[in-house]
Specification:
This protein has 440 residues and is of the alpha+beta class. The chain is built from seven helices and 29 strands. It starts with a strand and ends in a 7-residue tail after the last strand.
Length: 440
């Protein structure tokens, strides 16, 4: 019987399981059912065989590892990028994935290959080898400090070593595989809650459509389903319209209805309006933006420090034009971040800790990891989130790789944006939006 090599969940609501006989099976992530099996690897143009690891990165890209080398797969063209194929020299984990353990001190050299990897939907990848794992930060493109860590120490009930594959399609459940067995991991409860053989009876737990797709590309119906899932899981509460589940699906709110969130919190992280700090609502909110706000809390709080509050200057309102993205509930002006690190409270204000900093000659970006590592880490994470989930360098499907870097242009606007006028107008906040700036 063929052995599972890797698994990946894709933005098209499919999950793929790849086997060592160079065949793969396709599952519908929404229904959880297998759609087809015994499919040939040739459908994935440029992959020479089933990868050892296939992991979604975001912004339309995935990475396939084979031993010590890797390829980058482009979602839009549905093929491995030409730069990663012969006669070009191979891309190596040693050169392209900074911070992987080198084997110094007697451990394994991760640069020779890893067992499994998964995108957790929070700006982090988790890579597993032997009995340990590392957390890889998408924003900084490196392994986070303090890793590797033993699997058994942090993943309650998960196979303690030698994983074959991991996949996560968004929503509540992820899957770990080893030796013909699977484990279902409850992301909310942070533990394994089901297991069994990887055979003809295996099914995925149904996941709402759009669980891996960026917020900017969600349809209204997808955002509506994802919002309903968050409501059922207790991640947020609507004040209006009332949330009503029906036997055949969501009765209320309708996909095109603006909603009111109260309290203004997502999974325990509060959005506080600095202009009206006593406000207990986020109103006039487009449901696609709601999904972006929830995902921003996951990115912001995915590692140290512990973020408790995201301050803003407006969500759902702003300016005199009723067709503006703010007045249509599709934008946020994020102004500060509060929380705790090592037992001490902190605040990082976009104005005080960025916009008011002096700009030395020749410097494009004033914040720096040496002068303010905490602020730099928080602000760069927000920026990268914005380019991945909101509009980056264009609108909707026109966004293209590479996403903007700090100091360049684009639709995420902040104190050091390339456009001087926009930079001045946004010296005290990040602007992030879903969809066009103004409706025609």
């Amino acid at each position: 019987m063929a052995k599972l090599r890797t698994a990946i969940s894709w933005p098209n609501d499919k999950t793929y399981l790849f086997y060592d006989n160079d065949e793969y099976a396709r599952y519908d992530s929404v229904t959880g059912l297998e759609e087809d099996s015994g499919l040939g690897i040739g459908a994935w143009q440029g992959l020479p065989r089933s990868p050892d690891v296939f992991v979604w990165w975001g912004a339309g890209k995935a990475y396939a590892f084979t031993g010590s080398t890797y390829l980058r797969y482009d979602e839009k063209s549905d093929e491995v990028e030409k730069a990663y194929l012969p006669p070009n020299p191979p891309f190596t984990l040693a050169a392209g994935w900074p911070g992987l353990p080198t084997g110094a001190g007697g451990g394994p050299d991760w640069r020779n290959g890893v067992d499994a990897a998964v995108n957790w939907g929070n700006g982090k990848l988790y890579l597993f080898k032997g009995d340990a794992y590392v957390r890889y930060d998408i924003t900084n493109d490196r392994v986070d400090p303090g890793y590797p860590v033993k699997i058994a120490e942090r993943w309650a009930g998960v196979f303690p070593a030698n994983l074959d594959a991991v996949t996560y399609a968004g929503g509540r459940y992820a899957y770990f595989f080893r030796g013909g067995q699977y484990q279902r991991f409850d992301v909310d409860a942070d533990r394994v809650d089901d297991s069994g053989p990887l055979d003809g009876s295996f099914r995925l737990a149904p996941t709402p459509s759009g669980g891996v797709a960026p917020a900017r590309l969600l349809t209204l119906t997808q955002a509506n389903g994802l919002m309903a899932d968050l409501l059922r899981r207790g991640k947020l509460t609507l004040k209006s319209p009332a949330f009503v589940d029906g036997p055949s699906g969501i009765v209320s709110p309708k996909p095109d209805q603006p909603v009111v969130v109260s309290p203004p919190s997502f999974d325990g992280i509060r959005y506080t309006n600095e202009i009206a700090p006593a406000s207990t609502v986020i109103d006039n909110l487009d449901q696609r933006m709601l999904i972006a706000l929830y995902r921003l809390t996951r990115w912001a709080n995915s590692s140290r420090p512990d973020v408790a509050e995201l301050l803003h200057l407006g969500i759902g309102h702003g300016g005199p034009d009723p067709k503006d993205c703010h007045n249509k509930g599709r934008a946020i002006d994020l102004s500060a971040i509060k929380g705790e690190v090592d037992g001490a409270a902190f605040t990082r204000s976009v104005l005080k800790h960025w916009g008011e900093l002096p700009r030395p000659a020749g410097v494009k970006v004033r914040i720096s990891p040496s002068a303010d590592p905490l602020g730099y880490g928080l602000f760069t994470t927000v920026f990268r989130f914005g380019t991945f989930e909101c509009e980056g360098n264009d609108i909707g499907p026109k966004n293209k790789w590479p996403m903007p870097e700090l100091g360049e242009g684009g639709f995420v606007v902040y104190p050091d944006h390339k456009d001087p006028g926009l930079a001045t107008a946004h010296r005290n906040h990040f602007h992030m939006q879903i969809g066009v700036t103004r409706l025609p």
